[in-house]
Specification:
This protein is an alpha/beta fold. It is built from 8 helices and 5 strands; from the N terminus they run E-H-E-H-E-H-H-E-H-E-H-H-H. Strands 3-2-1-4-5 form a 5-stranded parallel beta sheet, sandwiched between helices. The radius of gyration is 17 Å and the shape is globular. Homodimer.
Length: 222
């Protein structure tokens, strides 16, 4: 039973990972979080993750992955690069190797703290084409980590097959709708809550919220 197990959540303080944190708190006996400093545009992301973990009473780890910014050029680690997405290409926000490295380092941490379960908010539905958000990648890495460390990890992806509207629905079902809406940082421009309203992350988040609220209203919920 998962209720007797321990999990580590890969945690950025955004909508998806915070929803996954509430999901993990419901399903596991003990939960810890890990956030990565990879030279992202806004250090506020790290502070947001720290404060949420503290408020929810879970242990928070911060790992230095700043070398990632030295290896790849992208709009999330370089303020002089525009956030763009041209048809047929990956968005400039794609960070090569990010989920691969984050999950690998999270696994090392998890083994050290006695956890076999890793939780991540990647999904194949609203994923902008990121190759390291695909289910096939996660399953492949799960096998690789188990072989590499001789340890039986299970990587959980609660959002893998749902869109942003259903992610809002899940947060609502977990009793976390208002918390996720007001306290998380999804915005590429570093604005907590509803965000800047202009960047791709904010537009996706808002479109999902609007879609869910329309359904929620029809169901008679406020």
């Amino acid at each position: 039973m998962l209720k007797n197990e321990k999990a580590v959540v890969v945690f950025s303080g955004g909508q998806d990972s915070t929803t996954c944190l509430f999901w993990a708190l419901k399903h596991f006996r003990e939960v810890e979080t890990v956030t990565f400093n990879y030279g992202q545009r806004h250090s506020l992301e790290i502070e947001c993750a720290r404060s949420i973990a503290e408020e929810l009473g879970v242990k928070w780890h911060l790992l230095d992955m700043s070398l990632l910014g030295q290896l790849t050029q992208n709009a999330l680690t370089r303020s002089d690069m525009a956030i763009e997405h041209h048809e047929g290409e990956l968005p400039t926000t794609f960070v090569d190797g990010r989920n691969h490295l984050f999950l690998s380092f999270a696994a090392v941490l998890a083994k050290g703290v006695g956890a076999r379960h890793l939780v991540t908010g990647v999904c194949e539905t609203d994923f902008s084409g990121y190759p390291d958000c695909r289910d096939s990648f996660v399953k492949s890495l799960n096998v690789t980590l188990n072989l590499a460390m001789d340890y039986q990890f299970v990587i959980h992806t609660p959002l893998m097959w749902i869109d942003k509207a259903d992610t809002w629905k899940l947060a609502d079902e977990l009793g976390a709708f208002d918390y996720v809406r007001g306290r998380t940082l999804t915005c590429y421009n570093g604005v907590i809550g509803s965000g800047c309203g202009a960047c791709p992350a904010c537009k996706l988040r808002q479109a999902g919220l609007d879609k869910y609220l329309a359904v929620r209203g029809k169901d008679g919920r406020q």
